[in-house]
Design goal:
The complex is a heterotrimer of chains A (327), B (452) and C (316). Chain B contains 17 helices and 15 strands. Chain B has a five-stranded mixed sheet. A three-stranded antiparallel sheet of chain B has the order 12-7-13. The relative contact order of chain B is 0.16. Chain C has 316 residues and is mainly alpha-helical. The chains are: A mainly alpha (327), B alpha/beta (452), C mainly alpha (316). At the A-C interface, helix 1, helix 2, helix 5, helix 6 and helix 7 of A face helix 1, helix 2, helix 3, helix 5 and helix 6 of C.
């Protein structure tokens, strides 16, 4: 509803703006007929725009709403009731009890594992990619071009194709079964390096570095005192994308981790699915894990990322584009 | 920073290098074969260094979890690490995948696993030349008398190369399920032959549309119907030779029996286990012994006292009855276990102790256990009639011509047949596609395939 | 994932980078050695998880389990496998549908959000579209399994109207590309819309003003000016969407479980490689499949890159 009115309102403002500035340009000689035709076409165009937006809004938001409401209902209510109705808090509590008692609270273990893997990788990613991107942008050394080229190629390579050899490699170094087998591959984030590179290459005032050098600061001091404080937005971005990407990663941990005690929550969800009668009825008979519990598990699994989304909402939707805003 | 030209140059070089490699490869005649010899002959079983105090890791499906937990309670001195997984049900390859992984890493194997019979086919041979077969030969670990206590033929899937690699948990003999209350109410006779079954189906379709006498849409429906019909869909006729012949009359008779029923909607093309299947409309079902508790009681929530079972259906003119088998788990002991003694004790307790089996969730394969199970009112109280004799007899009638293969029979059936049925094709017309799918699967895991 | 591509692209176009490159020549030697220390950590990771695995894949693909050279034997073996053709055909159909949808719709929506909707509303909409991105991976498939089940879906009427009465019919193998595109679009499009919006934002107002004065309508402006000016971004999006698309694994795998095996367990090339490696214990065959996938991905990316001059960065 609001969208519709907003759409037409904005159509009006932008037209007003254009009209105001062009102020009686050559094209403004409407006779009555073309004026009406133009109004009609504008109306059609606004309707098309509104229809697209409403359709997309439903497409993107409806599943999320459904998901948030699902754990408050019983399996039967899900099947028969109105899809977007609220069940009861009692049912939510029951779903909570069933889910947390699955394999003695395995979901907490999975969440902890996810936090360890994503958090550990985050620290390593920041520690390696920020200096690397900085050096690639502002220092000169042999092999710099090669490093950048390889980074770019690796960035567009389908990473899943490399998971098998990575597994064999980890095995070679006896890392299989340890947290490192996930953290180390996760912390390789060429994308972050490239992002930092571009940021420093475009946004750091050169004079500042030159001044620091004249003052006798060494390269490390310059990096610490001058570059890092300025790089906060890009550090935030790298951190965000590294964390979200790793939290949601499935293939590597699925392949590499032998024991379900070590699973991150994404792989845990898969195990939950394969042991719930909702989607794999032959396995897991007699379990309390039904659709509402599964929905609750999904919500819990994505909650950290969702919270991150909400908190960095402004940065994501506008701030991240700082580098590309008009000057 | 690199320029487009640099990229182009680098890429050009890469391509040139790749072309060189390919060219060289083509030039080199007499390259080695892509397949290498794997040790197929089971070498003598050698235990790992034993430590009777070490903890054992147990992988079980959620259904058998309470049994394992009960053992733990009664044997608190045994250190156990219990992990739940999908139980390798329904064509899952989780266990196989992980064992492959452990064979590469050289550690991590569970000591005891619950699995499906299909798993024995790969677990009894090494997964790669340097590995040791995962499953330990249990015939060297438990007394022969214990093995003799299992129902006739129930250990067949465990046996290969003169050894027994698993202990059977339960049998899933196919019987004829029906809703006695509805049958009585409508005055129908329970069929004893397939012809009567078909006639009843037609009658139901006409008189009570919406009710079904069976379903073919599950991943294991082929085992209920085509196995019972003695169809040679996957019959080992030599060490590594598989007979696949869906043109055999044993196969076509079942397809043509079911097709009219499917057309009349007396047999559903959905699976009984499909979400939202209306269990109150099920008049009959051809399926395994565990349908009683799991399908009718848990999933369909049919009230107690309505469901009954009768003997497997016969073909006209055949004196002996043959029936199918749908699942039935096994327990394997890892050959890598450092505490074989504890692992063996647990496995033996799970599969043979009366104490455990009388309350087991499914029909035990161990004969004494099965008797105790049938004597337990809790296992029978739900049914409208006494199912003991039906179960006992059917357990010995499972046809042995449907072999336990290295691939799961669920995959070709579901891919080729179920998707065709969902699209509205007939079962008879799907048989060629099914044949191709089975042959493809069989060849991909190394079988020689014959059609007669 | 997607949204940060904004800046890398902002770089090439903007002046400072070019100026910086020119200046760098004067500083050569000044920061020489120290640079290695700064990139050391990343270089180790790059070698370990980028370069080495690629090399190892190549080695595996040209040898057998005993390490003997097999030439193209592994490749011809996997080409002949009965699952190879269908898997690559599946992914091909999926990629075409996915790329078309993501390119057309995100650009159209970004244009609408940029020029047809008030900025406050636009920000709210962008955020709402972006939210499903939090549910990437397994979670998104699970949500859509519910959305596609006529028994529970809020869109059940729509599904029934399309002739799909039950879950089995929805998950018929032929529908899989559509379902996967829906899921991918749901989780990924929001981020791309944000990126495209940012790109459009970058077009100077004066250019649009001039077009308006010349009497161009909003759609004409979009088609003639806005879209051509963000062409590079569109190509960039296409490359990354393509790369992500070739990697489907968990999505078809979960759909296979949920469809009670009606969907093939080797629907996508990645799944096939997985089966080769872990079911058949054939890591060499798996590596060959991975390499084919890698080659196709790099080839397409390379074509797009060279055709669009995308990575024309700061030096010549």
């Amino acid at each position: 509803m609001t969208i519709l009115s907003a759409g037409s309102r904005s159509g009006g403002t932008s037209d007003g703006k254009a009209g105001g500035k062009s102020g009686g340009g050559a094209n403004r000689a409407p006779d009555a007929r073309t004026g009406a035709a133009r109004r009609t076409s504008r109306l059609v165009s606004t309707l098309v725009v509104a229809a697209i937006i409403v359709a997309l809004l439903v497409f993107f938001v409806l599943p999320v709403l459904w998901l948030l409401l699902a754990p408050t209902k019983t399996d039967a209510q899900l099947n028969s009731g109105f899809p977007l109705s609220f069940g009861s808090f009692g049912q939510l509590a029951a779903a909570w009890r069933h889910l947390t008692s699955f394999q003695n609270g395995a979901i907490w273990l999975w969440l902890r594992n996810s936090a360890v893997y994503s958090g550990g990788a985050l620290i390593l990613t920041l520690a390696t990619s920020i200096p690397a991107g900085y050096a690639l942008a502002l220092m000169n050394f042999r092999g710099r071009k090669l490093l950048l080229t390889v980074t770019l190629i690796v960035m567009i390579m389908p990473s899943a194709a490399l998971v098998l050899p990575i597994f064999l490699e980890l095995n070679l170094f006896h890392l299989i079964g340890t947290a490192w087998s996930i953290i180390l591959p996760f912390s390789f984030f060429p994308f972050g390096v490239y992002l930092v590179y571009i940021y420093f290459a475009t946004s750091l005032p050169r004079d500042m570095l030159a001044a620091a050098r004249i003052d006798g600061a060494n390269e490390w001091q310059i990096f610490r005192r001058v570059a890092l404080p300025l790089a906060r937005p890009v550090i935030g971005l790298v951190a965000f994308f590294s964390f979200v990407g790793n939290w949601n990663n499935f293939f590597l941990p699925y392949l590499v981790l032998p024991s379900s005690q070590q699973f991150p929550v994404q792989v845990g969800l898969n195990q939950l699915l394969s042991s719930t009668p909702s989607f794999n009825p032959v396995a897991g008979k007699g379990l309390d894990i039904t659709s509402p519990e599964l929905a609750l598990a999904i919500i819990i699994a994505i909650l950290p990322v969702l919270v991150l989304f909400l908190f960095s909402q402004r940065a994501l939707v506008s701030g991240m584009l700082a580098g590309s805003t008009k000057e | 920073m690199m320029s487009p030209r640099t990229v182009a140059r680098t890429r050009g070089r890469t391509i040139a290098a790749a072309a060189l490699v390919v060219g060289a490869a083509a030039a080199l005649s007499g390259c080695a074969s892509t397949t290498t010899k794997t040790a197929t002959a089971p070498s003598a079983f050698k235990q790992a260094a034993q430590d009777n105090a070490s903890a054992i890791t147990v992988w079980t499906d959620s259904t058998r979890l309470p049994d394992v937990q009960k053992y733990q309670q009664e044997h608190p001195a045994v250190k156990m690490n219990v992990v739940t997984y999908d139980g390798s049900a329904d064509g899952s390859t989780y266990l196989q995948t992980k064992v492959q992984l452990f064979d590469r890493t050289g550690s991590g194997w569970p000591d005891v696993v619950f699995a499906s019979p299909t798993d024995v086919t790969w677990a009894s041979v090494p997964t790669n030349p340097s590995a040791k077969a995962f499953a330990a030969p249990v015939d060297q670990l438990v007394p022969a008398s214990t093995l003799q206590g299992f129902a006739a033929g129930s250990l067949a899937p465990c046996q290969t190369g003169g050894h027994t690699y698993c202990l059977r948990n339960d049998i899933a003999q196919v019987v004829t399920w029906y809703n006695k209350k509805l049958m009585d109410q409508w005055g129908y006779q329970v069929p004893t032959t397939w012809a009567q079954y078909q006639a009843l189906g037609e009658k139901v379709a006409a008189e009570h549309p919406g009710y079904v006498v069976g379903a073919v849409g599950d991943t294991n429906s082929q085992e209920s119907y085509f196995w019972s019909s003695q169809c040679p869909a996957q019959q080992l006729v030599g060490d590594n030779t598989l007979k696949v012949d869906l043109t055999a009359p044993e196969c076509t008779r079942m397809a043509s029996l079911l097709d009219p029923l499917i057309a009349d909607k007396a047999v559903s093309t959905q699976g009984f286990f499909t979400k939202g299947f209306d269990g109150s409309k099920v008049l009959m079902a051809i399926g395994p012994s565990w349908y009683g508790q799991y399908l009718f009681n848990s999933a369909f929530k049919v009230p107690a006292g309505q469901i009954a079972a009768s003997a497997p259906l016969k073909w006209d003119g055949q004196s002996t009855t043959a029936t199918g088998n749908v699942g039935g788990g096994i327990w394997m002991i890892s050959s890598h276990s450092t505490n074989i003694k504890a692992a063996t004790d647990l496995t033996t307790w799970l599969t043979t102790s009366t104490e455990n089996l009388q309350g087991a969730p499914t029909y035990p394969a161990f004969v004494a256990g099965a008797k105790a199970w049938l004597a337990n009112p809790a296992n029978k109280g739900y049914f409208a009639t006494d199912v003991s004799d039906v179960f006992l007899a059917a357990a010995n009638e499972v046809w042995t011509g449907w072999s336990n293969t290295k691939f799961s029979d669920a995959t070709p059936w579901s891919n080729a047949v179920l998707s065709a049925l969902t699209a509205g094709k007939s079962l008879s017309s799907s048989l060629p596609a099914w044949q191709t799918a089975i042959v493809n699967e069989a060849k991909s895991v190394g079988y020689t395939v014959v059609t007669r | 994932m997607t949204a940060l591509q904004e800046q890398p692209l902002a770089g090439p176009a903007s002046g400072p980078a070019r100026r910086l490159a020119r200046r760098r020549a004067g500083q050569a030697g000044r920061t020489g050695r120290v640079g290695y220390l700064f990139v050391a950590g990343y270089t180790v990771l790059l070698l370990a998880f980028g370069v080495f695995p690629t090399g190892y894949s190549v080695y595996l693909a040209f040898t057998n389990a005993d390490g003997q050279f097999t030439g193209l034997g592994q490749f011809s073996k996997v080409f002949q496998d009965f699952r190879f053709g269908p898997a690559f055909a599946n992914i091909g159909v999926y990629l075409v549908m996915w790329l078309l949808l993501v390119v057309v719709l995100t650009v159209v929506v970004a244009v609408i959000l940029r020029s047809r909707v008030g900025s406050g509303v636009s920000a709210v909409l962008r955020f709402l579209f972006y939210i499903p991105g939090a549910l990437a991976g397994v979670a998104s498939v699970l949500v859509w399994l519910f959305m596609l089940d006529p028994a529970v879906s809020p869109a059940a009427r729509l599904l029934r109207a399309l002739g799909m009465q039950n879950f089995d019919q929805v998950l018929a193998p032929g529908n899989l590309p559509v379902i996967l595109v829906l899921i991918a679009f749901w989780t990924g499009a929001g981020g791309w819309i944000v990126v495209m919006y940012g790109a459009l934002n970058n077009i100077p107002d004066e250019v649009l003003e001039a077009a308006r004065i010349d009497g161009a309508g909003p759609w004409q402006i979009a088609w003639r000016i806005q879209i051509p000016m963000i062409r590079k971004w569109i190509v960039y999006m296409a490359i990354l969407a393509f790369a992500a698309g070739t990697q489907l694994f968990v999505e078809p795998q979960l759909l296979q479980t949920a469809s009670l095996n009606r969907v093939s367990p080797t629907w996508s090339p990645n799944e096939l490689a997985y089966v080769f490696a872990f079911q058949n214990g054939d890591f060499n065959g798996a590596a060959a499949i991975s390499l084919v996938l890698l080659a196709v991905g790099l080839l397409c990316a390379g074509l797009l890159v060279t055709r669009s001059g995308l990575f024309k960065v700061d030096e010549d």
